[in-house]
Design a protein that fits this description.
336 residues, alpha+beta
Length: 336
């Protein structure tokens, strides 16, 4: 005797991530002719279960595609495959950035292994250290940091964070009930996430032995520029910990971080380097070239100022490891 089907069953993690994608503004459609593909028209196509390996997880695949969108920015929603070239190694750096971001976001919730990628890039993912963002000189790290900052903005916020938290809740329960099998069930890869830092910021990952007293963002008065509150010097490092850094390794304030360096009338730079000054209707500024100050020099990743002794007043007053320094480094992907 036949009966009428009124409902269908789907994996809880799949439900979470299908809904998360929808709330972010994307549809997910299963297909037979692609592993994963974004059509630039609001739909992510993901291979049907018959074409996936036993350790493929729809939730992870949606999460990975959302991480791609975070690296490329909101304009990528209207570009096929987020604007990436999937037929060559041209965009490997951006793929690496996506994997770093995926590891960083998932680790906050104890999901780094459970939501790990299953593609050919898995070896890169597995080789990442405890802190996927440790080497700030690596451009893929800088791209990942920019993506991480976007995760707190629309259209991803708050849906991405809620999906990760819900996934952690489900995984924690399922891990305790996973029955023995020939291959361990993915849920067993869930790990209890680190607790929040006392400031409310995410806990540190690879900074064992470091504390707030050694962080570049702790001011002399004990205030943390990142947390915007006084902090005990003995507190363990949070996720945003950075040791004191060298301006010549950074150059953020002179690069794309700020759109203009205005100069006052009578400023030494205007007198000694008039060819570098552009006069506007109501103010004067240092000329810019390719998004950075024309006086900035970059030699093998070491930044220097060609007019340092005569630099404008605003540059002289710029405080290393101060509030504006943090803003500049954030804008170029060097700081969280």
């Amino acid at each position: 005797m036949s009966r009428e089907l009124r409902h269908c069953y789907r994996d809880p993690l799949s439900e979470v991530w299908l809904a998360a994608a929808y709330r972010i503004g994307l549809r997910v459609q299963r297909c037979e002719d692609a592993f994963a593909h974004s059509d630039g028209k609001g739909t992510i196509h993901i291979a049907s279960s018959a074409h996936l390996d036993a350790d493929d997880c729809l939730a992870q695949m949606i999460f990975h595609e959302l991480c791609h969108s975070l690296i490329e920015g909101p304009d990528s929603f209207a570009r096929e495959d987020w604007g990436l070239d999937n037929s060559s190694h041209h965009d490997d750096e951006r793929e690496h950035a996506t994997l770093r971001l995926q590891a960083c976001l998932a680790a906050r919730y104890g999901l780094r292994e459970l939501l790990a990628p299953t593609t050919d890039f898995r070896s890169f993912f597995d080789a990442l250290g405890r802190d996927p963002l440790a080497d700030r000189s690596d451009h893929s790290v800088q791209l990942a940091i920019m993506g991480l900052r976007r995760s707190d903005t629309n259209p991803w916020w708050p849906h991405l964070g809620k999906a990760l938290q819900s996934s952690a809740d489900i995984a924690q329960i399922a891990a305790g009930w996973a029955a023995p099998s020939s291959l361990p069930v993915l849920y067993r890869l869930y790990r209890s996430p680190p607790g929040a830092h006392p400031t409310g910021l995410p806990a540190g990952r690879a900074h064992d032995g470091e504390d707030c007293s050694r962080c570049a963002w702790r001011a002399a008065d004990g205030t943390c520029f990142q947390a915007q509150q006084p902090v005990d010097a003995a507190l363990p490092a949070c996720e945003r910990f950075e040791a004191a850094f060298d301006c010549q390794d950074c150059g953020a304030c002179c690069r794309e971080a700020y759109h203009s360096v205005t100069i006052a009338e009578g400023d030494p730079v205007a007198i000694r380097h008039p060819s570098l000054v552009v006069h506007r209707e109501s103010y004067s500024e240092i000329a810019r070239e390719d998004g950075h100050c024309v006086a900035l020099q970059n030699q093998a990743g070491r930044y220097s100022c060609t007019i340092y002794e005569d630099r404008p007043t605003c540059c002289r007053e710029f405080e290393n490891a101060g509030e504006h320094c943090l803003t500049a480094r954030r804008r170029v992907g060097l700081s969280l």
